[in-house]
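Subject: Sanity check before I submit

Could someone independently write out the structure tokens for this chain? I want to compare against mine line by line before I put it in a report. The sequence has 329 residues.
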Amino acid sequence: MLFVGALLSGIGLPVAGDGPAAGARITNIAGVNLELSALAVVPEGVLVADDELVGSVLFVEHGALESAGTAHRASLIKINRARKDSEPNSDLPRLFAVHDFEGMAASAEKSAVYLIGSHAPTEQERHRRTDREFLIKARWRPEELDLRVRPSKEEGVPGIYRKLIDHLASQVDISGPGGFNVEGLALRDGSLYIGLRAPLSNGETGKALVFSIKERDLFGKKSRRFSGPFKRLELDLGGAGVRGLHWDQATNRLLVLSGPSAHEGGAPQAVWSYDFSDEALILGHQFTPEQIAEHGNPEGITRFDAGRLLIAFDTDEATRASLMLLPWK
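---
Independent answer below. Compare away.
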């Protein structure tokens, strides 16, 4: 079991709306110390990842985000990896700690959910953190409120990929002063897209980097022989890095949340759309300084319904975390 939620599973966390802000409506998850980092819509609601509580994913029903001013429940999701299903990954103990969820994507038709860690080393000594180096494939089971890592033992395929840094070493400088930091994950036409907050194309400056690979190369029956390369995409986000990714089937565009690559900086915190057919990159919405000061840094993005996106903020407060319903056609 990757994360055991026995102490918290089933505890309801209140969700309440606090009215519109700059044309968008804000909903708060309150009652715990959350730093929201990623979103994925499933048929029953929305999965919300946290990048500080170890291995934490919350589930919020659609109605909880629609009804302002009403208390709702957000349930803690268990992430299961039973020992009997883990023989191909026998180097991982059953209680394998995963930390720092930074990206999430879902395939509704296959009930598959993908979660990626930041892969960021320690800031002081640049030691690699194995608990952050993972890309997980899990099956969403709404009746159990859990994510099951690996579909089944009979399929003989792994559910955890942990060699991203090794496989990207020849394609990007991961030893520079900006370090290496993953903050975006999207699923498009059978390929996974991994967005980097750092480094940029020229280290601490330049364009944002997005790497893609066929999902089957990481989680298919021949995946253990995979050694790269990944496809590389460079996006000019005004000096910003990727803080979130989402493939928007409604518009056939890759949605990108941008933000400073380093901890400080004036790079735009914004939503961009990228069209693969003509390589057009459009700035669609820029968050105001007032929104950022009140709600924190935007770090998660997904399509909520036909007219709106859902944005998650890293609020960095002990009592609440913010979600924004942003008008978007």
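---
OP: Matches mine. For the report I'm noting this point. The first helix runs from residue 62 to 66.
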